[in-house]
Amino acid sequence: MSEFKKVVLAYSGGLDTSVILKWLQEQYQCEVIAFAADVGQGEELDPVREKAMKTGASKIYIEDLREEFVRDYIFPMLRANALYEGTYMLGTSIARPLIAKKQVEIAIAEGADAIAHGATGKGNDQVRFELTAYAIKPDIKIIAPWRQSNWELTSRTAMLDYAAKHGIDVPVTAAKPYSSDRNLLHISFEGGILEDPWNEPLDDMFLLSVSPEKAPDKPTYVEIDYEQGNPVAVDGKKMSPADLLAHLNKLGGANGVGRVDIVENRYVGMKSRGVYETPGGTILHAAHRAVESLTVDREVMHFKDSMMPKYAELVYNGYWFAPEREMMQTAIDESQKNVTGTARVKLYKGTCSVVGRKSPYSLYREDIATFEKDSVYQQADATGFIRLNSLRLRVQATAKRKQHGG
What we know:
The chain contains twelve helices and 14 strands. By secondary structure, the protein is an alpha/beta fold. The chain starts with 5 loop residues before the first strand and ends with a helix.
């Protein structure tokens, strides 16, 4: 245990990491440097510095990673239209590689012996943090208290008791025993009262969105401009990546957009129930697909869509820095060169509907698609097209008739 003299802890100020900060000091008699990544938690970070120092940290880094997070992590993922298991927009998953990368960089700069995190042995985050850490510094040493034999705080109750004993303020209470993770893309809720998948989430749990029933009776229209697959402006106003997403979060949240309640398959093998709010991301996903529908060739689009489940799985499982994800990103970004244009979206009582799209690189030809008379498309050509494409079906049907004496 004496090998650890200085440890960099990924610190959020929540129950787990607050307890772990004190526990590391007790167990290893080591210096603990706290690291908090600002990826858009908002006011949650306000008390972190004081709380970390009060709990015994020798130093705390609070890094503003919001622009980097949206520009270099969220936007590439949105260019892929990534949805895990068809529903989850990967809000927690996509933040972990950036947080872990920055944590390792701080550990190197500080000459620390190890890094530590508060992810449990049952969850996905332990994998995401550590795969990233090893990809950046292969010889890094990692302390994961939840997986260690000397960790005795094996329940939420035990951790609350430990926190009370050491005078550590924590946000988890008996009244709201779920855990949450927030960043610019979403907020997640898990555990506690949500562990029974039959229980409907309480409405006062949600933080980013109003319930659809309480949303305005009048729809909100929003126009989003894209350049090469990335959103650059809302209603004609240019914004930085982080500001743009934050603005859409407000618009979407005010209209009850972006709530998802799912049971997902964790990488470690179990199913878990999660409730998510992703208002801005939901809008951007719909808008991006709308501009793509005009500008991306059919076969390119279908091939890109075929990659999406694997891409989403890689992000969910923690392989952001894996060569296969980077290879897929290169192919995806190649498809985005002409994804420039504008999508108009209607937000209304929890729904997000595309109602218009335009692009200077549009492949849509009204003179070809029209149901009115045209001089471009020769309808008689479809006869040969259909006969050629039906050949194998006709051969198969003939063979079946022979087999059954027809």
